[in-house]
Amino acid sequence: MDQSIDKLYNEALRTLRSLTTSKGILASTIESDNYKRIWARDSIICGIAGILADDKVIIEGLKHSLITLAKHQHTLGIIPSNVLENNGDVDISYGSLVGRVDTNTWFIIGSCLYYLNTNDEETWQSLVPSILKSRNYLKTIELNGKGWIYTPLSGNWADEYPIHGYTLYDNMLRLWGESLWLKIKKQTDKEFDKLKAKTLINFWPEKIANDESVYQKQPFTNALDKSISHFCSSILPGKYDMRFDAAGNALALLYYKLSSTQKEGIRSYLSVLKANISKMLIPAFWPVIEEHDREWEDLKDNYSFSFKNIPYNFHNGGIWPVWMGLFCLGLSNNDLIKEVKTIIQDFISVIASQNWNFNEYITGDHLKLNGKEQMGFSASGIVFMQHALNFQESSQKLGL
Fold this sequence. Notes:
The chain is mostly helical. It contains 15 helices and twelve strands.
């Protein structure tokens, strides 16, 4: 297994270097669906992979990505979703159908991790004003001043999937970014510590919660009665979205140390996924939304270029190497290294007989490569998987 992941890892780093330009890191070399641009989310995730690998070329690409994004920050503090600078012309997108909340959170994380790992004071000082604007913007979209940011439908990476509200993914990114900011500033914040505890207990309800820490009592009780074995994907007024969200759970696993009961829950859920998929692989969202499901109405017409969310594809049950790699890092943070090794082994076995070219995702039913190719996202996932096998060093670089 190690030899195969080593080969993939070296190929992944070569791919990430090939995406690195003087303006930042491209999402892909493929000129389709706006991928050949500097993307807040993709470029920063690729840069974090470079930090884990101690790769100077990719880290320099992260620096230029952050500078480009900061340069085109909206006056309201919004970090662009993507930017294309070409021969003096600039095309900036802050989101198509709706803005993207996770551009700001990834920007803060990327800026802080860049500084923590390079001590590049000059670049850091140039980014601080943009970080402060981003933090203020995120504070505004809490909407009620109670700590969690509210994401509109299509407002994050899963822009064609029906998830919104106080999402696990977006709020875990916010917590990570704020932790890094406080670490750099050598500050503590009691309100922030309360928010961390509140997030843990509400997104994975346990009976030990007291009324003070519960966001909304009846939905919390209903979630408690269902005895879930992973973090919920979103909390809305009146209900919990109990669906499994790989990216959100990956970030929560990376950020929190689970109780023994929760660890058993994760192990149990991985067994459920393996029983459904035939391999221990991690789909973006699960269970899949089928045409007969109520959520299908919210899914079928929500797309920009073409409809990709047929069952077991794209966001709808597709298996994204980037989130699977991040999930492996989270498992390692909770000493679930056996599961990490199984996921890597199963992933390698699936792509071994196919024409792997850093494809965007793998279908959740037939385990076929799909989506765009030469994706920095997927190359980053490989890097994350490799570094999940040696987490102690990785955790320091991630500021954890």
